[in-house]
Amino acid sequence: MTKDIVKFVVDKADPMGLLELCCPADEYDSEIKMIFARIRKGMSADEIAKVIHTVFLEMFSESIDTELCDTMASEMLSLDC
Fold it and tell me: What is the pLDDT of residues 16-75, one digit of tens each?
């Protein structure tokens, strides 16, 4: 998994709706770095989804939709060829 894959998927999903509000393109870079640092080779989509959910909860003190986390995790794995 590369950081570019994580960034592409997170920015595309825009889980907090910040990019939609015309925030800077690097708005999620801190969260992306944290997610990338916690992902380990061989993790399942469920495990990656939990990482995503945990990072956004830590950073925004607000839970994001678990189905969105599942979708992002699956997309990250599908792009990791």
Answer: 999 989 989 999 999 999 999 999 999 999 999 999 999 999 999 988 999 999 999 999
- Which residues are CB-neighbours of 33 under 8 A, at least 6 positions away? 3
Residue in this structure with the two tokens 């825009």, named with its chain if needed: 14
Measure the CA–CA gap between 73 and 67, rounded to whole angstroms: 10
Give the residue from 37, 61, 39 showing the smallest Cα distance to 50: 39
For the entire predicted model, the pTM comes to 0.94
Encoded tokens for 13 = 């999903």
Between CA 53 and CA 56 the distance in angstroms is 5
